Amino acid sequence: MSSVLQGFTKSLAMTFVSEIGDKTFFAAAILAMRYPRRLVLSGCVSALIVMTILSATVGWAAPNLISLKWTHHITTLLFFGFGLWSLWDGIKQGGGGGSEELAEVEAELDSDLKANGKTTKDNSKVEDENKKQKRPFLTQLFSPIFLKAFSINFFGEFGDKSQLATIGLAADENPFGVVLGGVVAQLLCTTAAVIGGKSLASQISERIVALSGGMLFIIFGIQSFLTSVET
């Protein structure tokens, strides 16, 4: 089995380039502009940590369901597939920042709020949550804002490229290192989104992120292919 350090570095790099400029990144930035940052950060990070652990667990169990050889080949194909997918996305996109994606995510959040009949209650809800800051932290876990941030990020990651890549990586690398690297990357990205807010999110170039992520996936694919050839 691969070393913890190798799994950590691969997962850290892969998750970072996948999450910067991702839909959940923009959602965290927007939520942080509307609600207390502490609750938004804790909700988003908790969801992403749970998803990372679940994905790595699925990847770790995969070699027990199918042969290790086939698992390695599937992982290699996933890396190449995600790499080409990201490169194609980068080529199609313009050279601007992430303002279009940011506006799209913000519109989706606004429509969700209106559908739930909560738009007119935002201001009073924020005031209530500010008062709750004085309560013990564990009692804040039941806050509607915490649960909203958690659910948006958790379900936003289902079927996402980073989730599938984490599954493949955990099947081929040390799962503990994959989880550790993924958690650190998620923490860095989400913290940057919450602190930087919309001003930071709007400056991110989706094209550069997509091209960088595509190149990284291709490199991982080549490395995985060469490993299979050597063995």
Automatic annotation (TrEMBL):
Domain of life the protein comes from: Eukaryota
The UniProt entry's sequence similarity note says: Belongs to the GDT1 family.
Q: What InterPro entries is this protein classified in?
A: GDT1-like
Instruction: Tell where it localizes.
Output: Membrane
| A single GO BP | Golgi calcium ion transport
The record gives the membrane topology as:
Multi-pass membrane protein
Residue ranges spanning the membrane: these are: 39-58, 70-88, 137-156, 176-196, 208-226
Which is one Gene Ontology cellular component term of this protein? Answer: membrane
Protein name stated in the entry? GDT1 family protein
A Pfam family it matches = GDT1
Record key words, sorted: Membrane, Transmembrane, Transmembrane helix
A single GO molecular function term of this UniProt record: calcium ion transmembrane transporter activity
Q: Does the keyword Membrane apply?
A: yes
